Amino acid sequence: MSSEFRGTWRDHWYVVPHHVLFRDIDAFGHVNNAVFLTYFEWARTLLWFDITGKRGATDIGFIVARAECDFQKPLYFEPIDICTRVGEIRNSSFDFVYEIRRGDPVEVAATGKVTVVLFDWARHSKKTIDEELRRKLIACTAEGS
Fold it and tell me: Is residue 144 in some structural domain?
């Protein structure tokens, strides 16, 4: 994968640089609230690819069970950092936690959490997190990164 489509680890966060696109802006001149979840999705996908070493759309081995976002500052047509890491890890699910940062000095524009459930697409059922994946996920937490 091209380095422009990868994040880097910084201060216990997987940081994906991004620039707000014109299409993300609503009639009020700021990023529409629904777009924040798309930003989360992009960072989550890149981190998953780094964790698993896989790169295809069908290699996404989870489904989203819950998504939440707390908005703190508006975003405009500007560069941002989409920051993510792994939060709580359970038997068959885990959380991605997020910060979207903007500006200089840096301000947190939004925080969020998305709970995902490991999913076996062939059987259409959830599956348990195996020890190898659990080890990789732990390495992506605040304590492990």
Answer: no
